[in-house]
Every structure is written in structure tokens, then in C-alpha cells.
Amino acid sequence: MSELNPIIEPFKEEFQQIFLGNKSVIDQVLHNAKEVVGKCLNLDDFKRKFAINLLKEITLMLKAEEINHKDFFLDNMRENVLWQPIVKVILAKRIEELKKCKVLKKGKKYNISGLKETYLGKMIVDKLGFTRRSIISDLEYDKLISIIKKLKYEIPVIVQPTETEKFFEN
User: Fold this and answer.
1) Tens place of pLDDT per residue across the chain (170 aa)
2) What share of the chain is helix, strand, coil (3-state, %, to 5)?
3) Would you state the torsion angle of the CA atoms of residues 6, 83, 34, 19, taken in this order, to the nearest 10 degrees?
4) What is the domain partition of the chain in residue ranges?
5) Are strands 103-106 and 157-160 parallel, antiparallel or unpaired?
6) CA–CA dist 148, 102 (Å, integer)
7) Element spanning 165, H or E
8) E strand or H helix at 23, and its extent?
9) Predicted TM-score of the model (pTM)
């Protein structure tokens, strides 16, 4: 198997450039992909099957949430065609995470702390300059919503009545 190291090393080096998580995961993924391939007739066949099994292994681990989608550096992944199937899975995971978040509305203020905990939500909030705040006004919330609507999604808003509203409700 040592004759396969020159084939596996480039995959390992590239994976290290796109994966920011625990480095032992890289060895585990490479080992599992290598085990599945088994005995191949030639090196080209091994290289092709290894790449396919590597992608399958990473995809399965992402879907099972054994590795976190936040640990991948998408900018580096987009440069190589090999990683394109993984990019799609990671983006789907990040959008799914965004869909699960909620914004709390109390009076004329919005609490976006739940949104800031998601990968895409944090990126949007940072770009708008709301990084250090969890409470924003109606006008700021409208800016936020206009960007999120471009993703063809709406964040559920949970309305919490103010003390005055609670008083007049009873």
C-alpha cells in the first residue's frame, strides 16, 4: 500500500486546505476511502475510485453531522472541480441551518441573536455592520430581510408582547 501514498498525498494536502476542523478527521476519512477501494487493477483505476469514495465518505459524514459544515473553507473548494459535490451539500446544510433560526420581536425591536448563531446569518449580519448588536430596529430589520429574501427565504418572527401590551390584553 505504500506505493499508493504518492496518489493519496495530493488528496490529503488539498483536503487540509479546505477543512478547518480536527485534523484526525482527515486521516479517518482518507483511511475509510482507501479501505473501500480495496484491490484495483491499476493506479489510474485506484485514483478514480479513491476520489469517488473520498467524496462519498465526506458527504456521509456531513449528512450524519459527524463533521461540521462550518469547518469547510468554501472559497478554496470552489477552485477545484473535485470538491463541487461537497460544496452543494455544505451549502444545503448552511441554508437548512438558516431556515431553523428564529427572530424574536418585542415592541419595535428585533432580537437577532439566533440568526447570528448560524453561518449564513452571521455573514449577513456582519456585512450589514450589526456584528456587535443582537437587538436591531425596524429599519435595520428591513435591510436584513431584504438580503435574506434574495435567498428566497423568510425568517420566522416570534412576537413577544411588551409589558404594556400584556397589561392592555388583560
Assistant:
1) 456 677 778 888 888 888 888 888 888 887 777 776 666 667 777 778 888 888 888 898 899 888 899 888 888 888 888 888 999 999 999 988 988 888 998 888 999 999 999 999 999 999 999 989 999 999 999 999 888 888 777 777 777 766 666 666 66
2) 65, 10, 25
3) 80
4) 2-94, 101-169
5) parallel
6) 13
7) helix 163-169
8) helix 23-37
9) 0.75
